[in-house]
Design goal:
Strand content: 15-25%
Order of helices and strands: HHHEEE
Helix content: 25-40%
Structural class: alpha+beta
Shape: elongated
Strand order of the largest sheet: 1-2-3
Number of helices: 3
Distance between the termini: 41 Å
Radius of gyration: 21 Å
Length: about 80
Amino acid sequence: MAPHRVGVLQCEGLEIEPPIEGIDAEEFDPFQRPEIAAVQAMISDLYLVLPDVAPGQQFSTPCFRANRKNFCTLHFYRSRP
C-alpha cells in the first residue's frame, strides 16, 4: 500500500501483463545443465570424503562447509562454471 500522498498522484492502479513465454530451467539455474551437474558431482565426491564436510547453499548456489564454515562456493562467471 502506497502512502496517501503517492496515491493522490496516481489516477489508477498499474497493470502489468504476465509473461506469455516460460523460461528454460537451465537458463534460470545453470546448475541444472547435465554437464554442470557432472562437474558438481565430481567436486562433491572430492569434498564429501573430508571430515565434517557437508553440502549447502550460499546465495542460491551450491557450496561446501566444514564445521559450518564455507570453504567452497560454486558459481558462474560469464556463463562459465
